[in-house]
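Figure caption, in words: inputs first, then the predicted bound structure.
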Amino acid sequence: MEQSNKSARDSVARSSAGHVALVTGGSRGIGRATCLALAAKGAAVAVLCRSRINEAKGVAEQIRSAGGRSLALQADVLDPEAITRSVEEVVAALGNVDILVNNAGAMTDGAVADLKDEDWEESLAVNLTSAFRYARECIRAMKERRWGRIVNVSTQAVYTGSSNHAHYSAAKAGLLGFTFSLAKEVAAFGITANVVAPGRILTDLLLERSAGREEEWIRQTPMRRFGRPEEVADAIAFLASEEASYITGAVLNVNGGLVMG
Ligand SMILES: NC(=O)c1ccc[n+]([C@@H]2O[C@H](COP(=O)([O-])OP(=O)(O)OC[C@H]3O[C@@H](n4cnc5c(N)ncnc54)[C@H](OP(=O)(O)O)[C@@H]3O)[C@@H](O)[C@H]2O)c1
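Bound structure (NAP present):
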């Protein structure tokens, strides 16, 4: 009895065993924590980044030294050829992608009245178009195997709005419409597509942009603290797991109560 309880626990703990995951923006913050969470559930993990390849290699090394399979890769999601190439490299090294986490994101400042077309287009390219391109690259093989998990990382700012970030919020809101439609297209093939919408999470991105507003942001959050990257990663890893098989087209808020519903 004790033995069967133990194997039940082990199978839950390693519910992504045998799957291959590709995580964009895996060099730091939420993406890094997601790579480690997926590896802890037994997935082989491709850690993608734009420029911090040493950090990405460190994440991959951490996974390998714990007995997992992992590789680190550089691919700027602004470059469509780099997206195609990176998926090919992951498939060659680890196998077909079963779990795709579109986490790479970037935020710049600019009021709508001052935004240049290039700022708008770059925000859409990094935060939205890259998710479409990675999904397009990975879906065919997922369909053939009739199993797949796609998780797109948005933000609570799509509900609250964010002054000087209309280009970022619009791109991240676009991820919701994209994900819902994608979820319908692929549902019959055993593939799910969901969104995780983080609130204020203590990463370098937040620290680089908070400029002394930490106390105000914490006051606005019912839980009175920032989230940890691991708390977002666990939500992503759940949606990527076997256990989340009947959840698709969902938005999972991980925001300490900042936005509810
Ligand atoms: N932190 C928060 O409070 C918060 C709240 C809501 C939503 N989010 C979203 O959560 C995701 C992760 O945020 P984070 O705080 O962990 O961010 P972060 O610490 O700034 O990390 C961003 C990651 O994205 C990668 N990246 C950025 N531009 C890229 C590009 N052009 N091509 C490829 N990779 C690129 C970076 O790679 P390099 O390191 O190589 O540059 C890095 O790995 C983002 O989509 C962000 O919008 C964060």
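Residues 15-254 form a domain with the Rossmann fold fold (CATH 3.40.50.720).
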